[in-house]
Amino acid sequence: TTMVSAYRKVLDMDSANSLANQIPEKDVATWNCLIDGYSKSGNVELAESLFNQMPVKDIVSWTTMINGYSHNKRYREAIAVFNKMTEEGIIPDEVTMSTVISACAHLGVLDIGKEVHVYTVQNGFVLDV
């Protein structure tokens, strides 16, 4: 995972993917690293494909995919992933909530933004957005 992360940091996703493919059973951190790298390099479709292939996702996986969509100005998809995450019973953290609120602001969807804000208040989040 460390070497995959190093390649990701310099957005050398061909090398990161090649190395990751040599790992028989990727851990969640390796998957997350690939998703983040592909998102940051603008290949959100491949990031989404990897996300959908993941056998196990954690809060970082979900937040990374939400952030990947937001990074690529695909705010509706970011909100859709957030909705799916909560439907699956995954509890968001402050990073997730900040990203979702930002996506709502970019879209100008006040009604969804208010719902997200109510959720943050009800669940005791302290956000610095």
TrEMBL record:
PANTHER family: PENTATRICOPEPTIDE REPEAT-CONTAINING PROTEIN, TETRATRICOPEPTIDE-LIKE HELICAL DOMAIN SUPERFAMILY. It comes from Noccaea caerulescens (Alpine penny-cress). PPR repeats lie at residues 27-57, 58-92. GO terms for biological process: RNA modification. One of its GO terms (molecular function) is RNA binding. This is Pentatricopeptide repeat-containing protein. Keywords: Repeat. Transmembrane segments: none annotated. NCBIfam families: PPR (TIGR00756).
